[in-house]
Amino acid sequence: MSCRSRSSRCAALPLVVRVPTLRGSEEGRRSWRHGSPAERATLQHVPATVIVGAQWGDEGKGKIVDLLAQESDLVCRYQGGPNAGHTIVVDGDTYKIRQIPSGIVAGKPSAIGAGCVVDPAVLISELDELESRGHPTAGFVFVSGNAHLVMPWHVALDGARERRLGRLQIGTTRRGIGPAYADKATRIGIRVQDLLDPKILRQKLELAVAEKNVWLERVYELEPFDVEGIVRTHLAFAERLGPYVADTSLLVDRALREGKRVLFEGAQGTLLDLDHGTYPFVTSSSPIAAGAAVSFGIGPNRIDEVVGVAKAYVTRVGEGPFPSEIEGPAHERVRELGQEFGTVTGRERRCGWLDLVALRFAVRVNGITSLALTKLDVLSGFAELPICARYRLPDGSETDEFPAHQSDFHHCRPVFETLPGWTGELVGDLPGPARAYVSFVEDALRVPVTLVGTGAGREAVLALG
Ligand code: IMP
Question: What is the signed CA dihedral for 130, 136, 137, 141, rounded to 10 degrees?
Fold first, then answer.
């Protein structure tokens, strides 16, 4: 891996800096920013790190995972399914991965946890593609037997519900995610391990198809599914996927006991979290860092570090309130420069200026210990850069904490502070105003920014330290 540090020399990984508890005093201020030498010495070994999206998804987590995966022994995806789309560019080759943890591109053993939903057809096509591009998958990819399957009726129902909601739609990826998690919660889901027993698989499929066909035909006036066809395709999926099914809780537990470094990779982002996000405009799983422990069946005290990944601005796909959304021509400019089009759906992403209120919330609910600020290069060339520092609430008061009540959030207005911009490519040291932009974020959130993304390629990351 090649990386460029502030002092133009390659900083040694790991790049994670622990946030000390001492805050407020000058000593605390100095140490939270970059960690004391003694603290950094203890960071040479960071067994369990969670990488979490700190905004509404698409923060560039794949690239940060790819970078930190080089130093990891096991990479674990903990929620979501084929609604995610991680793009990794290696030596000009682009990988778009939806189901398998992006650590696989770095050649690391990769596990899919119980908290994920798996579309078997998507997973198989990814396995086939990775193998055809020279990445072995046998003995490298592990899928929890407790993960639930995304079935064809989930995809059909997701689309049908969105169509029926009309202008009230959520703007889902239409990959069947909500219906798959709903079936899990109502305990009629089909799990990966059901694939391993043809008798149980048939029984469960017959039950599910009978019920889903009623919904499809009577409620949504759609074609029913043929149970025999579904059984046939899923028996074929079982043959291909059987060797990858594993006890991923035990796998992670053993790795941690042996002192190995485990990286947990989240999909989507904090504000799309089912419990803590901007409901109902959320996904149906738990992208927040605690989701990693739940999905892999390990105690929360096994997690050492939480790296929040945030773009230097914000994007959002789908519907829902978005206080710092850019108005005017700058919106199109950011979208074009940042190539803000969805990996999974190709939809145009909505773009906003960096929102510190939302980021402060992400730091809180995830316990973020350091931040990776991606795509800073996209902001080059703007004379001035607004940053949303506070929200103005409907009663006229201002807050720098994320509103707990949906009406406050829906009706709040952004209060911007404006920083000077910079020009030119971000190669070598950051120009003064870009450094000031990063420091402004650190000061506001009291969390160190340890990585800065300066371009699309794998090597275009600056390690600050
Ligand atoms: P679902 O996850 O397909 O059910 O979609 C629910 C919401 O999450 C919609 O607003 C989607 O646009 C959003 N969403 C789902 N996956 C991603 C992602 O990977 N990046 C950004 N937004 C996503």
Answer: -110
Q: How far is the CA of 58 from the centre of ligand 1 (A)?
A: 9
Determine the residue of 58, 117, 168, 272 to mutate for testing ligand 1's pocket, defined as the one with the most ligand atoms within 8 A of the Cβ atom.
Answer: 272
Q: Give residue 203's pLDDT.
A: 96
Tell me what pLDDT residue 18 has: 31
Q: What is the DSSP string of 79-119?
A: SB-TT--EEEEETTEEEEESSS-GGGGGT--EEE-TTBEE-
Is 99's C-beta closer than 6 angstroms to any atom of ligand 1?
Answer: no
Residue ranges of the chain whose pLDDT lies below 50 = 1-44
Question: Do 270 and 366 contact (CB within 8 A), yes or no?
Answer: yes
Supply the pTM of this predicted model: 0.90
For residue 14, say if its preceding peptide bond is cis, omega within 30 degrees of 0: yes
Distance CA(314)–CA(167), nearest Å, equals 24
Quick: pLDDT tens for 254-308.
999 999 999 999 999 999 999 999 999 999 999 999 999 999 999 999 999 999 9
What single-letter amino acid sits at 83?
N
The contacts of residue 28 (CB under 8 Å, 6+ apart) are 20, 22
Instruction: Give nearest CA residue, ligand 1 atom 15.
Output: 83
Nearest by Cα to 272 from 51, 12, 7, 57 = 57
Give pLDDT, residue 89.
79
Residue 459 is predicted with a pLDDT of: 84
> Residue 124: what residue type?
I
Distance 127 CA to ligand 1 centre (A): 23
416 phi/psi in degrees, rounded to 5: -95, 145
